Amino acid sequence: MPEAKPVGFWGVSFCKKENRSPKIARMAIxxxxxxxxxxxxxVYTMEREYPYGTLRxxxxxxxxxxxxxxCLDYRVERVRMGNIFKKIPEVLAKHPxxxxxxIDDDDFTVYDSTVxxxxxxxxxxxxxxxxxxxxxxxxxxxxxxxxxxxxxxxYLPMIWVPWWSPEDQRDQESMQKGRDGLSNDxxxxxxxxxxxxxxxxxxxxxxxxPMMAVAMVLQVDGLDTSAFENVSGYFARLRARPSYRAIDPxxxxxxxxxxxxxx
Length: 263
Known about the structure:
By secondary structure, this protein is an alpha+beta fold. It has 2 domains: 2-129 and 246-256, Glutaredoxin (3-Layer(aba) Sandwich); 134-245, Up-down Bundle (Glutathione S-transferase Yfyf (Class Pi), Chain A, domain 2), CATH 1.20.1050. Helix content is 44%, strand content 11%. The strands form 2 sheets. Strands 1-5-2-6-7 form a 5-stranded mixed sheet, covered by helices on one side. Strands 3-4 form a two-stranded antiparallel ribbon. A hairpin with a 2-residue loop joins strand 3 and strand 4. Helix 6 packs antiparallel against helix 7 and helix 8 crosses helix 9 (229-240). The longest helix is centred in the middle third of the chain and has 30 residues, at 134-163. The radius of gyration is 18 Å and the shape is globular.
């Protein structure tokens, strides 16, 4: 079915290897994973250019951020929105819930952004994104879940989904409800959590990845967060990370489409 075929692009990687804290775990990698280590990962997501910026799937953006943070070679295949909404067989064959993202790593397919990101973190020892100690790892995962369920699946779609429609067709009431939810429920929690740290779990980790998508959405929407000093500084730090360039609304589709393996 020709119309079901995703649109693929090559692009530029913004990966930056970091000297991580010894508190961040380095995972043991099996021989099979090492064999996959030089492969080109394909991430399937939804992205579209508009006059006011390049809009991207929030969950797909999570995976792009982790690919960049882990310095893994990847390319983007952009799935047509209609194929996701219709849940065509080609999509369901890759993701049983008919959503993005999913990735292909050679002949291995993984779906669900949180599961994908855990897999990517374990696949490569570069820039580990979870702490070593069990309690700290659980805390980081709990914060990641808060970002997923409390923000990306609750308030953020009320703001983000209308942005994909013409201005005169946007549900302004829904958008304001989403902004109020963030301001009243989410930002105060983040403000308190960030009182003595730069990132949610200390060092940058998987806990911060959903918030990269929040920073992306609010860059377009323009929600004023100045009443929350810690949060404003946090979003500024997230947007300053090299990995954010892969989801920044300013770069074009071609300039944020992945990395090319060195020949």
